[in-house]
């Protein structure tokens, strides 16, 4: 069974969005992080049993900057926590899903991550996450 780990939201203005979500949720982000390999700044808010991740592109060619240019701000992805990311990647490939990564990579919040192509998930970008042990 997959559990929702977080919902990723693409934002143009990191400072403004962090303030907005603080006012909305009533809590400060528990973590902010720059992920150089992805060209993003991230912040995480805990909300009940899940998290909200805000993502701001730091370069014009980052995936988040391109997403905002094409679609505007909004929900970018849904992340599911898995126990064994390699096993889950193999399972999804055998079920016909298209993965955007051949191998997991280091993501934000001390996670290994892999993405499922939106074309194989009804237009939704899916992220698999596993805690780095």
Automatic annotation (TrEMBL):
MF term (GO), any: methylmalonyl-CoA epimerase activity
GO biological process: L-methylmalonyl-CoA metabolic process
Entries under PROSITE patterns matching the protein: VOC
InterPro entries cross-referenced by the UniProt entry: Glyas_Bleomycin-R_OHBP_Dase, MeMalonyl-CoA_epimerase, MMCE/EMCE_epimerase, VOC_core
Domain VOC: start-end pairs: 3-131
Keyword entries, A-Z: Isomerase, Metal-binding
Classification via Gene3D superfamilies: 2,3-Dihydroxybiphenyl 1,2-Dioxygenase, domain 1
One Pfam family per UniProt: Glyoxalase_4
E.C. designation(s): 5.1.99.1
Family per similarity comment: Belongs to the methylmalonyl-CoA epimerase family.
NCBIfam families to which the protein is assigned, alphabetical: metmalonyl_epim (TIGR03081)
Name this polypeptide is given: Methylmalonyl-CoA epimerase
């Amino acid at each position: 069974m997959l559990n929702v780990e977080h919902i990723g939201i693409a934002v143009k203005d990191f400072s403004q969005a962090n303030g907005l979500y603080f006012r909305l949720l009533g809590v400060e982000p528990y973590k902010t992080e720059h992920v150089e390999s992805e060209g993003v700044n991230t912040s995480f808010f805990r909300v009940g049993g899940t998290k909200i991740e805000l993502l701001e592109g730091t370069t014009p060619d980052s995936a988040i900057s391109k997403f905002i240019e094409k679609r505007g701000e909004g929900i970018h992805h849904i992340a599911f926590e898995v126990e064994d990311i390699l096993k889950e990647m193999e399972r999804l490939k055998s079920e016909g899903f298209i993965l955007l990564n051949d191998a997991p990579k280091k993501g934000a919040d001390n996670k290994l991550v892999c993405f499922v192509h939106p074309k194989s998930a009804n237009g939704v970008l899916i992220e698999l996450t596993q805690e780095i042990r």
